[in-house]
Amino acid sequence: MDPIIQISGLSKTYESGFQALKQLDLSIRRGEILALLGPNGAGKTTLISIICGLVNASSGQVLVDGHDTVRDYRAARQLIGLVPQELTNNMFDTVWATLKLSRGLFGKRPDAVHLERVLRDLSLWDKRDERIMHLSGGMKRRVLIAKALAHEPDVLFLDEPTAGVDVELRRDMWALVRRLRDQGVTIILTTHYIEEAEEMADRIGVIRQGELMLVEDKQVLMQRLGSKQLSVHLQQPLREIPTALADLPLSLTDAGYQLVYTYDAHAERSGIATLLRLLGDAGIEYKDLHSSQSSLEDIFVELVHGEQEPT
Ligand SMILES: Nc1ncnc2c1ncn2[C@@H]1O[C@H](COP(=O)(O)OP(=O)(O)OP(=O)(O)O)[C@@H](O)[C@H]1O
Question: Which residues form the ABC transporter domain (predicted)?
Fold first, then answer.
């Protein structure tokens, strides 16, 4: 793995005493699309704000392409484009002036060709001479994205990019994100929408109460989703899985009273008939059989709402 961002032991306690991030470690791969899922207040915006140098961490370190975001702030920040949740444009400026200024702030030489491309990609070219205050809400959000791309960042953060936007803008944004990824830009997006993570991401991370509960390749997660489980509740507990069953994908739980068999939900043969025959041959009796299939939604709900911390 070639990480572009390395986060280690990152914690944040706000002045109120609230701990928003707890010892978070994460490596973000160069060129990937990483979706960070999590409920309201999980710490996603805090994490992004620390990486972008807008909020100070209480402890821990963030390196962006090897540059420490505190000691080497300018070099690190220059590599990053941030599309925040809230509108932060100067309403009196024109679209073109906003982009030009933003590019200049990052010390990049003027490049009208690049800015034109960005504006055309976001269907904003016709609006380039308009003052931002005269644009619709959707157009203002497009300007936020254009502004984040004006200095040609290597990493783009999108904080809940599609919350409350219409279908057309959502589709345009997804297409743009894919194009940027094809150009080698690393993209991190936060979202509440599981479908968005499924549709867009190479990897999915789940944050809950300031902790990274899981970060996994989407394909691996989807494979796990494609698997089904059959639970066999036994009459008598087993101390271990008998040798006759050793080749099957089985695990023993519930103090030896339950055998869990995992199989591919889409396979032609589940192998259940073989399992039951082998159980019979080995003289293992069971009371009950129960099958289940999990979805990304289940995994997410379980992770996020699973064990609530005592309040
Ligand atoms: N400046 C602050 N002072 C005190 N607490 C804060 C501050 N900013 C955020 N918090 C708290 O930190 C927690 C994490 O907030 P954060 O905005 O990072 O969550 P989030 O995952 O981005 O949520 P959302 O999905 O709602 O945007 C929340 O409980 C929030 O109330």
Answer: 5-234
Atom of ligand 1 nearest to the CA of 192: 25
CATH superfamily of 226-293: Alpha-L RNA-binding motif (3.30.70.1560)
pLDDT band, residue 304 (cuts 50/70/90): low
Q: Quick check: ipTM above 0.85?
A: yes
Interval between CA 41 and ligand 1 midpoint (Å): 5
User: Among 28, 52, 33, 4, which residue's Cα sits nearest to residue 174?
Assistant: 33
Q: Which of 127, 153, 145 is nearest to 89 (CA)?
A: 145
Q: What are the beta bridge partners of residue 196?
A: none
- Substitution site in 12, 16, 19, 44 for ligand 1 pocket (most atoms within 8 Å of beta carbon): 44
Which mutation among 10, 11, 14, 36 tests ligand 1's pocket best, with the greatest number of atoms within 8 A of CB?
14
Which residues line the pocket of ligand 1, CB cutoff 6 A? Answer: 14, 16, 18, 20, 38, 40-46
CA distance 86 to 80: 17
Distance from the alpha carbon of residue 51 to the mean position of ligand 1, in angstroms: 15
CATH topology of domain 1-79+181-224: Rossmann fold (3.40.50)
pTM for this prediction: 0.78
Non-local (6+) Cβ contacts of 176 within 8 A are 121, 122, 145
Domain ranges of the chain: 1-79+181-224, 226-293
Per-residue model confidence as pLDDT tens digits over 150-205: 999 999 999 988 777 788 888 888 888 999 999 999 999 998 777 788 888 999 99
